[in-house]
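Try it yourself: sequence plus uridine-5'-diphosphate-xylopyranose, in.
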Amino acid sequence: MKLSVIGTGYLGAVHAAAMASLGFDVVGVDVDPGRIDRLRAGSAPFYEPEFDALLAQVMATGHLTWSVDYADLADADVHFLCVGTPQRRGSHAADLRYVWDAVEALIPHLRPDSILAGKSTVPVGTAEAIEGRIAHGWTGDAAHRPLVVWNPEFLREGFAVEDTLRPDRIVVGVPAGPHGERAAEVMRQVYAAQMAEGIPLLVTDRPTAELVKVAANAFLATKISFINAMAEVCEATGADVVTLADAIGYDARIGRKFLGAGVGFGGGCLPKDIRAFSARAGELGVDQALTFLREVDDINSRRRDRAVETARDLVGGSLRGQRVCVLGAAFKPNSDDVRDSPALDIAARIHNEGGQVVVHDPKALANDEARFPSLRYEPELRVSLGGADVVLLLTEWQEYRDLDPVATADLVAAPRLLDGRNVLDSAAWRAAGWSFRGMGREHG
Ligand code: UDX
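Structure, out:
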């Protein structure tokens, strides 16, 4: 079986390489020639652990090729649609322009009985709309018209290779009737290796498959905002949110994962997906069902306000002229992605208040510079800490968790620190003389 992958971002590039590693012949297509040139040369256009090694391994097998020309995917049996669906400018809804551009470019090359498997996160109803568009332009035998299935992707950046090869579950939304049965059978062949490992494959209708993805992300975002709401209450009462999370997390119905209180969620998925989900609910006349997601978003953005307030507080009331060391800029560790990054947003706000911000990140500095050129970026951790009036740990990279409080105190101008991810040992830092603050934790 031959596969094509359209769109070579974190999702598509990893999916293409992962499927090629399973022995499929795969062609990855993207409209960005620079990206394709890099992939052809075996170099990842983004930082994703394990991806470079996987790419080198599969490129050597000859199973994986890259192209900017849609004609090169014409003989694929299954086309995976992996383009981005960012937030639309001036609206909360998803911007589907890349989806439609890809569909239009693909249509002339679709052969009978082929399958378009959508992986992009889309508003419910998109699969059906795409099928309508394909049917409209199809001049061949109707019985062999290409089919549209929805096969959402749940990968986490930083774990993309592992999540692609060994996902918790595979969901395939198929059209009704015999066409759907045929499509489900093809998808079972595509995922035969994963199924043989015992990974469940759920065959659903298409709206359910589209909703599974946004529902999962809405749940995760809600879980994070729940614990951050508890952090607000803890701040008002002197309670400790980390201990609270540990205690409620022992309840197997709740679970400790995704109860990390701090500066909140960011990235290319959770923030825009909950907004697009609410917008779609409004179009469907069920906006009340998801009004709570607005609160989830608001709680999340209040955490950023709180981090700025705490930084201000730590330096005695005004950030103007203060040297502020920001540790971390990616939206989470093990990623160079700065889309909707809480760290970068907080850094920019402090800069706007007159703080002299120096940002350090092990992988994301090039992307940061493109996004906020006015901030100062420093690749050396020791240099970024040097002379700081306050240190803000905003993305929990391991090298920040490993910082020694005594040695770090010698580098800064004043030992003041906000642990925006609640990952440091507060007692050890306080014992080394630091004015130490967490998020939703007791004050130092
Ligand atoms: C998310 C989903 O996890 C994934 O299934 C989906 O396919 C895409 O969106 P990702 O955006 O890679 O993946 O990041 P994730 O690990 O979910 O973290 C999202 C954000 O939440 C990060 O900013 C992270 O720092 C934050 N977070 C996570 C918390 O603030 N607290 C937590 O306890 C967990």
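One thing you can check immediately is this: Residues 237 and 442 are 9 Å apart (CA to CA).
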